[in-house]
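Supplementary material to the annual report.
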Amino acid sequence: MNLKLRRFAVLPLVLTAAAFFVSTVNVAHAAWTPRKPVEFVIMAGPGGGADKMARLMQTVIEKHNFSPKPFIPVNKPGGSGAEALVHMKSKKKDNHIVMVTLNSFYTTPLRQPNLRVDPLTFKPIARMAEDTFILWVHKDAGITNIEQFVDAAKKAGSKWTMAGTGKGGEDELLTSFLNKTYGLKMKYVPFKGGGRVAKELAGKHANSTVNNPSEALGFYESGDVVPIVAFTKDRLPLFPDTPTMGEVGVPYSYFMQRSVVGTPGMTDDAYEFYKGVFEKVYNSEEWKAYMKKKSLLGDFLSGNGLVDYWKVNNETHRKMLKEIGEI
Amino acid sequence: MEIIQLLLDGFLVALEPTNLFLVIIGCAVGLFIGAMPGLGSVNGVAILLPVTFIVPPTSAIIFLAAIYYGAMYGGAVSSIMLGIPGASTAVATTFDGRPLAVQGKADMALVAAAVASFAGGTISVILFTAFAPPLAHVALAFGSAEEFALMLLAFGTFIGLGGDDIPKTIFSILIGLVLSAVGLDVLSGQPRLIFGDIPGFFHGINFLVLAIGIYGIGEILWTIESSRGEVQVSQAVVTVRRIIDSLKQMGKSIKTVIMGSFVGYFVGLLPAAGATPGSIMAYGFAKTMSKDPDSYGKGNVDGVAAPESANNAASTGSMLPMLTLGIPGSPTTAILLGGMVIWGLEPGPRLFVDQTEFVWGLIASLYVANFFSVVLNVAFIPLFIWVLKLPFTILAPVIFVLCVVGGYAPTQDMHDVWLMLIFGVVGYLMRKLDYPMAPMVLAIVLGPLAESSLRQALLQSEGSLMVFIERPISGPIMGVALLLFLLPVFKAIKAKLTNSKGEVNAASGG
Amino acid sequence: MRRAELIMAIVLAIFSAYLMWKSTELPIGWIPEEGPGGGAFPFWLSTGMLLSCLWIIWRWFRRVTPQSRSNLPYFDSQSATLIGLVAVALTAMIGSIHWIGVYGAIPFFFIFYMKFIGRHSWLQTSAFAIGAPVVTFFFFEIMLHITLPKGETEPLFYPLYDLFL
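Predicted assembly:
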């Protein structure tokens, strides 16, 4: 009995020694590299824009061997990203976890202050792109420009429905912006996922949407839906005939960030590693082609540049949410 | 005729040596992934990714289709052998599959599942080939109101699946629906029923957590009690002769299989519905139409054939909204959608026109995968039976470990493992008192779809309930659903009128 | 059995009431021109749960169900011990995953279950206690790329990752 117990006591010692040995060996290397698979948290459900993009990033990383250990995607869509944010925050100093975010990065903590998450504390690894928004209607509505759209929506009053992704998110903010600017009473109906929203419009269950180009592209190509106006500064190369908000008299643009963040306590050498990986992804042929095809904009941003960008956007979203009475 | 030519071209691609090799590997891997509780074809993508670098996209798709179908079959294997549905599509398979296995007829159930799945796959591929492009418009016409009507229909078909105890059955359905409401309310964007502010509740209660808890842990506890922990060997036997006999017997189920395939295919076509309601409805219809409805749930081969033919047919059907509308009906199709992005393909109405080779190659490879899955599945039956024959004191800890790992894998959250344990123990205690469990599990699958479609439709109609009756598609579906709801009520009234004397006697006697 | 039936119904009734209360965090009424509020669905369904519990209790008083007539014990002492033992072992295994990880917890669970409940030989037991984590590791971590929790044992896996990933 005694002997057995002793053997059990020795076991952890041996294991710790082994672990110590292993961990000291790699100290010799100057640059930090992951020791185990990296948890790649996606702040949205499978099939959405963020998910597709994250999986593309993962593929590019694996294909070109940008990282010695694989990135493993984990979807955490719960509570409009609340679950993902709390999860990241609870990981504190973990260097083996990064997260793909969108604009719920700002809106969810603002709308749910009890989460006690401050998005600005996360490690600003990379902004990979900015997704754009376009106002769409069905071709059978016979609307081709913003004046006709405003007339029709005014006439319909609250019978005019706008389908969008989620409540209090990007799509609703844009809807309330249009309502305010043009004195409309459009009703916002939230759905799960941009693909579903595009289908609502194509099936004429909704009157208009503010889909990302990537979500409505299929129905645009088939001619079912018509772009009216783009919420960008310049015309999108993919939609050269669609005017921007500025051109129709209201200088306004709105973008969705596609960024990668680390835990608040991520060490600087780990940050350097991830920054390098995602910079390489950003400059890869695959990513460039994807950005072009999906009408994505935005340069690569990291570190202080990204934090400044966040600060501006966080305030914008605070203002916008206050205006629609969500906070 | 052009379509048939395209399909044949697709077959030629699928049967190239490299691709054929990938199909066989994919089916085998898929079979084992699917047979693990908690894992499904979604997890196949992890294997898929590295493959996409070494082979062309078409081969990658073929490999994915093979994993997809392999996992579909695997789901049935776990439903029948362990009584744990590996995926929501295989829930209905447990109802009769598990009793058959307990009676020592696991081989028969496995053969029935394989044959029915193959038939379902075949019928659906034919339907897909003939009607895919026109049906895309039907899918488009399906809005929230129609979706809600369809959900009611699905509820209507399983109203008869509960136990004899009416209040306990109602309780079971309701608690399933309430649990499905945990998490985020899509319509108001507010979190709700976050018990104790635990972040794990934000993602809601996953169907798999409840199913693995109740059917995995609960079922083993149940078996431990009934066997009193004695080393019990399942009486399963397997011979080639028995398998051939089972194959011959499948002739009797042909009507059920055809019905299941049609129901599955058309329900699968509808965006957001997917294969789960399809398989449940097929089971419900088969029971309603059967001459001997009481034998369902006690080990009727038709009860395995109906949902299995339906879920395979539906998985072909659900390719349609994914390809033409870009709406994933299931997590697997969501991953496939992601894969299409990586391969540079744009889902949408134009895909059938612009990428004919891809579309028909996919359909053909689904079919080839379907065929090989049957062959492999039948070939593996002796292995599965051997596992069942392990002493229970070995099998039980193995299943417990599978449950724990399987409960963790989908969300990678220990919270779900604890929840699973609680569901397992409480479910077992409730089951001892005759609370039926199946309605609860089905309700948690259908609940979120039903609630959000109801509220979206009402929001669009400014709160008018007429939207469900007025619209040309939802109206008739609502009518059928209401009839199904009223059917047991009529039956009960009739039974009460004839039996009321007997019950009074029994009550005074007790 | 008779007592268990009543206790279960009462416990479930209390749980239903708790769910009703919890649902009222969001509006439970009908919002004009919008339809039911966010709490309505769970609220009214839990009300239904409560009503069915009351119905079950009423049937218990009338002794309608077989359980409410049965005088058999809910658990006999033999199966109660066994089920209790298994449930505790399972809880202990899941609990220890937080600390020693899946690969630490699985062997102990197998040793406990196969040796002390099943009374299998040490050879068989150790085959499963060692084989199960190895198979799990290769199937989940290497093939499917699903990382399982490892708790304090995590650093031990670094060399394995270096070798296989």
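The radius of gyration of chain A is 23 Å.
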